[in-house]
Amino acid sequence: MEEDRRKDDEDNKLALQFMDSLHNYLSLTHSLSSTLRQGWLELASAKHSMGTSRVNTSVLDLKSHSASTTLKITENDDGTQPQFTLQKWVSSEHESTKLEDKNEHPQDSDTKSSATEATLTKNLTGLADNDEVRKERDKSLSVFGVLISPKLRATQLSFEKALETLIDIANMRSSVLNSFTQLHKEVEDTKE
Amino acid sequence: MYGFEALSFNIHGGYLEAIVRGHRSGLLTTADYNNLCQCETLDDIKMHLSATEYGPYLQNEPSPLHTTTIVEKCTLKLVDDYKHMLCQATEPLSTFLEYITYGHMIDNVVLIVTGTLHERDVQELLEKCHPLGMFDSIATLAVAQNMRELYRLVLVDTPLAPYFSECITSEDLDDMNIEIMRNTLYKAYLEDFYRFCQKLGGATAEIMSDLLAFEADRRAVNITINSIGTELTRDDRRKLYSNFGLFYPYGHEELAVCEDIDQVRAVMEKYPPYQSIFAKLSYGESQMLDKAFYEEEVKRHCLAFEQQFHYAVFFAYMRLREQEIRNLMWISECVAQNQKSRVHDSVVFIF
């Protein structure tokens, strides 16, 4: 009887974890959609302000250069839940000091959504104040010129936020799939 | 002599002034913009524009349309109008009309040089150049490694040659040098245009002085705001401001040391013509500054048509048409992105 109750509790916990992850996943996709809309409009606004000859794809740099942002994928021991980490504004000069790692550690479902929001806010605020990060941002934007409109800088921040949200979505999806697998396994075990 | 243009202007300039006033009446009205702002798709925009002077330029474009296509075709209308006026003009109007295009020439030179630095294909860059700023040897810009070669190989035979005296160095071209080159050339061009208009005298000198001074002042503010937080030093920033305009010289000294938008506002509010611009903005806001400047510019260019027998109407028409094309670009982007609620953020009505 005690064992049955414990099993029920575990099943409920799994079900709640799955639903919680799914809710966060849907919230993040909605947030990504609105961030991208804002970013695209800001890009149009920058083009309107600076002129189409300054903001267009033909000025993008085709020379070989190191990526300013990289993605690291780590898997846990049984390979069931890959974790995605964004390493932002890491140029070749600053490889030894990673400026920001996002979403490195998996978190409990109870605090996941609020912690994710806090991480996003902290990352954006902390990054905005960092001189090195600002230099890296300016370097990325220098393809459009040095004296660029504040609208183009706002565009960069929007798309940066969208990239972070994408990584959060990937991690949340990984969590959803993992929760679903566990729940499905429990249901199958119960049937047996 | 000022005041006697009525006696002789029409001999050489009468036909073209009539032509440009006819073109002015073809600019889009508020009713046209209201219709355009209600469009659901870019094809709807094409349909509304078919009843305007842009109709013949867009009628053969296949669906689906892109916003860049609309802008390119509308620009062709401006280019055709300009070329017709240029081929009919005699001196000094023909030189005046050529001066109007030197800004585009500078933009094209910087585009080719920047694109080459980034290892882009020259043909791709030439397609993005503004048609009003094209010249014969423009493709040869791709071979230059520094400004001295740029001048010696290509630009010495172009109208931009005199503007290079202040920026010829043997330093290799990089993003900062190119930006300084762009702004130094534009500064020299504006000052040369200003001197030319002063030499013409009469109503042309009076009206063009006001329009070019506004252009110089707006440039100074934009350079200041865009250089905040960058590596451009105060001295370098000061050197990019033009040597005329309402801000020259004391306003420039104050703008050179500004570190944020509120300090720029404090400088501009000392000058009555610019108080109304910042009155529309809240503290710390710079997003709507462009629109405020464009509105003021449109107002001044419309006023240029209130007087006869001067060349400023040609300059004003070109600028108003460019503003119209910017409006169409913004409306197209808002419609394409399904963000029609933001259309009025940047549209500037001309009439």
What structural category do the secondary elements of chain B indicate?
mainly alpha
The tally of beta strands of chain B, per DSSP, is 0
Q: Roughly what percent helix of chain A?
A: 55-70%
Largest interface: A-B, 31 and 44 residues
Return the CATH topology of the domain at 89-200 in chain B.
Answer: V-type ATP synthase subunit C fold
Q: Tell me about the biggest sheet of chain A?
A: 3 strands, antiparallel
Question: What does it look like?
Answer:
The complex is a heterodimer of chains A (192) and B (351). Chain A has 192 residues and is mainly alpha-helical. Chain A has one domain. Helices cover 64% and strands 7% of the residues of chain A. Chain A has four helices and three strands, in the order αβββααα. Chain A has a three-stranded antiparallel beta sheet. The radius of gyration of chain A is 21 Å and the shape is elongated. The model of chain A is unreliable at 92-128 (pLDDT under 50). With 351 residues, chain B is mostly helical. Among the domains of chain B are: 10-80 and 311-350, ATP synthase (C/AC39) subunit, domain 3 (Topoisomerase I, Chain A, domain 4), CATH 1.10.132; 89-200, Up-down Bundle (V-type ATP synthase subunit C fold), CATH 1.20.1690. Helices cover 64% and strands 0% of the residues of chain B. Chain B has helices at 5-25, 30-37, 42-49, 55-58, 67-88, 93-117, 122-128, 147-154, 175-200, 202-227, 234-240, 250-256, 261-268, 272-279, 289-304, 312-336. In chain B, helix 6 (93-117) packs antiparallel against helix 7 and helix 10 runs antiparallel to helix 15 (289-304). Chain B starts with a helix and ends in a 15-residue tail after the last helix. In chain B, 40% of the residues are buried. The model of chain B has no long low-confidence stretch (mean pLDDT 92). The A-B interface holds A 37, 40-41, 44-45, 47-49, 51-54, 56, 58-63, 134, 138, 142-143, 145-151, 154 and B 68, 71, 107-108, 111, 114-115, 118-120, 124-125, 127-130, 175-176, 178-179, 182-183, 222-223, 225-227, 229-232, 286-287, 290, 326, 329-330, 333-334, 337, 339, 342, 345-346.
